[in-house]
Design goal:
two-stranded antiparallel sheet, two-stranded parallel ribbon
Length: about 170
């Protein structure tokens, strides 16, 4: 799962390294066919940028670590993998299978200028036109922090919140 971190204050104007916050919930998880991959949505980006169209919010799942062989292939960037059985190793939040959380520092000091570049490029693996308004909103440097924001305090905290499970090496 990707966990968006954001500052307390306007994005792009506050140093994310000094204060990283995130949304502990809500997240929606659905297993997709035919690749059997999970589709995770919700969190801060949905709350701030896709409140009126939650089904259009970005996907928050990645498959970052794989013991690679020539018979494997990433699909849709790194959101799923072939063969499909490899997508079954994780069932979602609170799952007993090994999992982790990728801390996504997208909303750092460069996000406003990067969003202008991405808006002008007009490229995205899905439908690029869906993201024009999103990039425009980011350029307005909103404050993503709210009363339910949680300050990041380490991996044990994410386990306690049910966002990941312990890996028993």
């Amino acid at each position: 799962m990707l966990l968006d971190l954001y500052p307390e204050g306007p994005i792009g104007q506050v140093d994310l390294n000094l204060s990283a916050w995130f949304d502990a919930s809500p997240y929606r998880i659905q297993r997709q066919r035919p690749l059997l991959n999970l589709w995770v949505q919700g969190g801060a980006r949905e709350r701030v940028f896709f409140q009126n169209s939650p089904s259009q919010s970005p996907t928050l799942n990645k498959i970052p670590l794989v013991k690679w062989s020539g018979r494997l292939a990433y699909v849709n960037s790194t959101h799923s993998i072939l063969p499909p059985r490899l997508n079954l190793g994780y069932d979602g939040l609170g799952d007993e299978h090994p999992s982790g959380v990728l801390l996504h520092k997208k909303f750092d000091r460069l996000i406003v200028s990067k969003s202008e570049t991405e808006r002008l490029r007009g490229e995205h693996f899905g439908d690029p036109s869906r993201f024009v308004e999103y990039y425009s909103q980011i350029q307005m440097a909103p404050n993503m922090w709210c009363e339910t924001s949680v300050r990041y305090d380490g991996p044990e905290q994410l386990e306690e919140l049910g966002l990941m499970s312990r890996i028993n090496w």
